Each structure stands twice: as structure tokens, then as C-alpha cells.
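Q: How would the C-alpha cells look for this protein?
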Amino acid sequence: MTAVATAAPLLVYFSSTSGNTARFIEKVGLPARRIPLYRSEEPLLIDQPFVLVTPTYGGGQGRGEEKGAVPKQVIRFLNDERNRRNIRGVISAGNTNFGEAFCVAGDIISRKCHVPHLYRLEVFGTQDDVDRVSDGLERWWTPQLTSRQ
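A: Here is the predicted structure in C-alpha cell form.
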């Protein structure tokens, strides 16, 4: 059975114990599912199109700036082909103190999963970020309803 996109995008997100990404997701107010923090939790399986929201880890120290940038939990989630085939885009959070590595997790996922890196936000986002993401996703998502079915 082919999964069908809904009128509003599903956001699948990872948030560490800091809760920064979770706070952003709450402010956006779209349907969302959280990637488990601990291996002991039931793995998340998504059978419909979604946009991934992830923090970027690390400070971008030199040549290995991409190493460790994508949280292990997100890697585990995307390593399941059932999840990976439904990703349609990625939004990343980061810290501008990371310099060139700001939101590099989104760049990595975009490249590996062949989806657009839709938005970059600082830590847990401002109200301006929330507005831009909400409006942008609404405009961007509608064509997704038919393009990959």
C-alpha cells in the first residue's frame, strides 16, 4: 500500500534532553512524531511522507566538521529503509557559533537522502523562524501531495 501525504506535513523530529528542537516543534504546531532518545525505546516507523527536523551536533572543528554532526538516533531512524523512503525534506537546527558547520546535519541528510534542505534555524528558533517554516511548509507541501505518489 502506498502512503498518501496529508494536507499538512508530518514533522518527524529528534530532540535531545535539552528539548530545544521539541520546543520549536511545539511552536510550529503541525502534526509531529518524536524519534526516540534511547535505544531501549520502541523504534519509530513512519509510513507516510514527512519532513525531518534535526539538531546539529558538534562545533565544526576543522576538516572533520561533519563527523558526529547528525545525532546517532537520527542515523538509526534513517537507516531503516521504511523511514528513509518517506522523507521529503529536512529542517536543521544549530548554533551559529559552529561557523561553517552551522546546521551541517541538514546538509548531510539532504545529500544522502536526495531531499531538499528546507530551512536552517538557530537553536530552538525565533517567532520569525516559526512563521517562516509554517508558511514555507504550507506552500511547499501542497505540490508534494501529488509528486511522489
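Residues 65 and 101 are 6 Å apart (CA to CA).

Helices lie at 20-28, 72-79, 81-84, 104-113, 127-147.

Upvote if useful.
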